[in-house]
């Protein structure tokens, strides 16, 4: 018989493999309680929640008036144990722990790059500490310095001209999810024992570079676990042993996540998939009469409130790319088991209910892993919350299980999947394939700077563009771009592992990991529409005095992506499949598996600003369409013309097997499109049916906004009105308070298609 590990804290749980190895998924499957009912059991906010939320709202208002900054550290390099304990209102908090010693204070994080840390301070009116600048310039090298030491001239040129853009060379890469559930289930001491066992098994006499690197990393992971224990002790908690009840399970889990956000400032700091796990502890306490449903909701409200408080110091350049101060504390809920049963628990309802108890919020980035096979009560409630809050996104759980081979996948950012505790991702921003169209026409010369950036090749001549000639040029440009892009990312991730290693997250993951290598495409709709314009639109070329093509006039109508026209949608797929094919040909850092996304975040505005006129009729400097969204109505022929369902059908045709880093689609639906304004139940049912149909057809992701353009225009004119303070909208892959967007990005959101009919 197996000698199963036993702790008294596990009394009442079903036994299994999880007792003999670190295996949280086995624990969940053996112990969770599926819930197939509706939302009628939910409780209102507790007095403590209301008191804390009122206080936090006051701090948020100060933060808003100071351009997203409440306070900043200037001279304490952030680590897991660098700060004394901090509280919002200590006597009211059921779950405790802050990133620093003061609520909303942004930590000083120089390990990614001292120049960025200092620029974040200076841009917000804080003085730079000369000692810190000296130490991290002369004594302790940073990730950013290492990257730029290794960059080639070609890499720098491509970065400068925005053909490759948003690279995590000036900020933390993020998108690495620790299995924070392990802290609650096993306690830190057992996890430290397991890491020490792993360390002894790494390497067998021959010390290769890979073995040396991994041994150093596992040693860092071991120290990170020790630091977590010390940090928790400073708050008065001993997390050496497993959690004994629901409150401890939430607190222990949160301490694991807190260790990550105290010491890392990645572009996405997701908390993973914790709902069913925590529901097991809550249900055990409910069955024992230890807590009530009212108290269970209070605990979840307080956890979510902590996630709403996560903040990082950012530079102005970062905020231009990712507007509204997003953290991507993505929390994935619901989903299905591999055996066809659902993983929905009451906790999935409780988590969504926080958007009622505390109002809409961008963080955490609540993500429903959706399937039409989920219980109807939950699907209806998810549709209701989506309609009322515009604060949640939905991802296709059927595709996740099929392609990731697990029912424990979660979203690491906006649309990027990873299997909790088993996978890690090397995040890599995106290549601008709309700009690549222009390089193919102009022989690798950038249309904005007139610099030779791409390979020197013969520009296309003539008064109109020949499709066959263009396609050959475009393939040559994509071949060059894929190679340069991957090599650039290889430099970034080598240096990130060396100088800004994410030990807290990786300490809560398996030592033997699968690694994915995320790449991305910006401008897919404009690239596809430009190809269709060249093929069918008899595009007239306008050249400057040097013969450079600077403008294009389609003379005939042409099919466009986003209107459920097979030929146009197939062209988008061809671009996706060809570029991914070239990415796969390259050597990737640590032999990671390449993936690709169609995602831009709000950086579609910046990308568009640096992209000239395109053959589809889009004007120079105008924002690119976000993610996989169809082009805006710009020029004579562009735009979604056939309604919401046609637009969704086009997106659903995109080949997820070539875009396993995710395909983002953001839609704004006028409430009237869902039914009569006096019948909300009908509107909710219709929205649920739209979601069922979209995901059944193979759509991967959907951001849902249910409001009219008129409301956005009204808010834009009166942006500081307190009644709009928490108005939240979904953008490309995350949610944001509308008032926190830049004026330029607010105009972009307003200009997006507002579907008045299905």
From TrEMBL:
Name of the top EC class for this enzyme: transferase
Cellular component GO terms held in the UniProt record: cytosol
A single MF term (Gene Ontology): formate C-acetyltransferase activity
CDD domains: PFL1 (cd01678)
Glycine radical modified-residue sites: 733
Residue span, Glycine radical domain: 631-758
Active-site residues, Swiss-Prot/TrEMBL: 413-414
Gene Ontology biological process: glucose metabolic process
Annotated region (Disordered), positions in chain: 611-631
Catalysed reaction, written as an equation: formate + acetyl-CoA = pyruvate + CoA
InterPro entries to which the protein is assigned, alphabetical: Auton_GlycylRad_Cofactor (IPR050244), Form_AcTrfase (IPR005949), Form_AcTrfase_GR_CS (IPR019777), Gly_radical (IPR001150), PFL_dom (IPR004184)
Keywords (A to Z) from UniProt: Acyltransferase, Carbohydrate metabolism, Cytoplasm, Glucose metabolism, Organic radical, Transferase
Domain PFL: 2-619
EC number of this enzyme: 2.3.1.54
Protein's cellular compartments: Cytoplasm
Ion transport keyword on record: no
Biological pathway: Fermentation; pyruvate fermentation; formate from pyruvate: step 1/1
Alphabetical list of NCBIfam families matching this protein: pyr_form_ly_1
Stated family: Belongs to the glycyl radical enzyme (GRE) family. PFL subfamily.
Oligomer status and interactors: Homodimer.
The name this protein goes by in its record: Formate acetyltransferase
Native source species: Enterococcus florum
